[in-house]
Amino acid sequence: MSDAANKIAFQGVPGAYSHMACQAVKPDMEPVACASFEDMLTEVQDGRASLAMVPVENSIAGRVADIHHLLPSSGLYIIGEHFHRVNHHIMAPRGATLDQLTHVHSHAQGLAQCRNRVRALGLTPVMHPDTAGAAKDVAAAGDPKTGAIASRLAAEIYGLDILFESAEDDEHNTTRFLLMSATSSVPAAGGDMITTLVFQLRSVPAALYKALGGFATNGVNLTKLESYIRAGVAEQAQFYMDVQAHIDDPAMQNAMEELRFYCSKDEVHVLGSYPASPSRS
Predict the structure, then answer these.
(1) Which of 57, 143, 148, 169 is 20 to 30 Å from the Cα of 207, by its Cα?
(2) Rounded to two decimals, what is the model's pTM?
């Protein structure tokens, strides 16, 4: 196995939840830390890593910003999904106490997922590019008044004391990740499958209603549908959709035919058809 074939890229620094997701899904692969989502995808695009672990949504904070804009143009394919339990802790330099804390640093998602706890403790939230990076910077600063919200692994790596365990507002706080590759890998039909696609409709009355009619009449279940504005195309929304079906199922093919009829030319892109995570059931 080549070095690249044994590497999986993630956004963040060691101790990030994406790092933990890599360890959970691909324990035999070497995690590669990347400064940004773009850098993470580029590692796979340029052949320096074979897979990317991409966070797309959280059960509390919702969609991960920017990801929906990056995936369609990445040229990568979704080959799997993983639901990772997110357990946030408030941590600070060794010897600090919770009463001393005035500010807490974390990624926007981490702060959003602990919003009620942060408010209840009277702490000022400070946004950071990622959770583990916040822990690393807080450790380097050594200020007992400044803490971080991150994972237990991050506290261990950067030598911080955990002052408040399980600070998230929802005990079932979970992030969904997509496993992405430069090559498509669609398993044979059979078992529970998810197909992810993005599309842009033609500007005609009731286009979305009509485009989705094929899924209803063919008994194909949609598990997710979101709209967002694509850069440079402000007058038309782009849609991101997860469908509970294999791309080659006859019912799915019939539904896709109707969808394409109401979409702009070449504006239906299948990002992947992959096994549904057991966590869905």
Answers:
(1) 57
(2) 0.88
